[in-house]
Specification:
- The protein has helices spanning 3-15, 27-39, 42-48, 74-83; strands at residues 51-53, 88-90.
- The chain is mostly helical and 91 residues long.
- It has a domain at 41-91.
- The termini are far apart.
């Protein structure tokens, strides 16, 4: 057998084996997740899935044509976090 076939055979044999259990998820963790999701509004859930680029939070009208020196616009940052519940900012 060629090396690639052997590699695929090994991956297939070990990658498809039955997982013993998913007990590493605790009941307390599941309760926390369910409680947190139940307490969030639809807008908060959508916001948590939103990723903005740094340019969207910087001074200037066009996020692709940033003003120098680049600085955060405090109003944009506050609006994104408080009003829109953004989940993350990409660099």
């Amino acid at each position: 057998m060629r090396p690639i076939q052997i590699t695929l055979l090994i991956i297939t044999c070990f990658g498809c084996r039955q997982s013993e259990s998913i007990d590493h998820y605790t009941d307390a963790g599941s309760v926390w997740v369910e409680t947190t999701l139940a307490s969030m509004s639809l807008a908060q859930k959508a916001g948590e899935m939103t990723q903005l680029t740094l340019g969207a939070l910087m001074v200037g009208e066009d996020p692709f044509e940033l003003e120098e020196p680049q600085t955060f616009d405090a109003d944009k940052v506050q609006d994104a976090i408080v009003a829109h519940h953004i989940g993350s900012v990409l660099n």
